[in-house]
Amino acid sequence: MTRDRQRGAVRPKKHLGQHFLTDPQVSERIAALLTLEENRQVLEVGPGTGALTKPLLQRFGSGVHVVEIDAESVAYLHQADWMDTHRVHEADLLKVDPMELGLNGPFALAGNFPYNISTQILFKALDWRGQVVECVGMFQKEVAERVCAPPGSKVYGILSALLQNYYTCEYAFTVGPGAFLPPPKVDSGVIRLVRTPDTDPDVDYHALKRVVKAAFGLRRKTLRNALRAGGFDDQAIPKEWLGQRAEQLSPADFVTLTQHLMPSESRSDT
What we know:
Blueprint: H1 3-9, E1 20-21, H2 24-33, E2 41-45, H3 53-60, E3 64-68, H4 71-79, E4 88-90, E5 107-112, H5 118-127, E6 132-140, H6 141-148, H7 158-166, E7 167-175, E8 180-181, E9 188-195, H8 205-217, H9 223-229, H10 251-261
Parallel strand pairs: 2-3, 2-5, 3-4, 5-6
Antiparallel strand pairs: 1-8, 6-9, 7-9
Helix pairs in contact: 2-3, 5-7, 7-10, 8-9, 8-10
């Protein structure tokens, strides 16, 4: 599809954070990153005019569902002769449940994710971690780098510590602004997250999330001060970590920290 035809079909909308992917080679590379077996379920978020949808369909056929909040994009996909309209869901991903979209078992999340809700999408993947076995897609580069950052990095943070406890996180490749219409003002990064349920942390996710958020809430402060400000008893913090900052702890360290701070709530929920 040419850029002119695409522009006429659906207008990219700034308030939805839409930057349509126009480079077919990038779309094919993203689809190829999925490690799922053929005919497994894939939920694409924000398909727009289907640049990524088509290579996903080539790999996974009727297993592909798409969820789109933009009515204009939905109308375009409904009239496309290559898309099953029963698998096009007009909905807000952040306000639906997988069951409402016909996804009853394990599935992968994929997409050229809207930058304005990309962090929320990743938290949604964590909420749905019992079903989301993989996540592959495009994010603003700084978000992609944050997800995969190691402890000690300046961009290591809440998402890094939480996601890396449940997924193997890999930064795949960088995409420049010229691959999109309209071109964004920043580079983009493609990442792959693969679920690792056999090594799930022995901790309740919501307890872990609370501790991680509190620790990074004042990231320039020591753990003692940050966690005290977050309502935790600093006497429960292991002595070797009292003077450290959140960015110095590994994802596994946060599990241990949660077990110390919230022993009655830290039992695994998975």
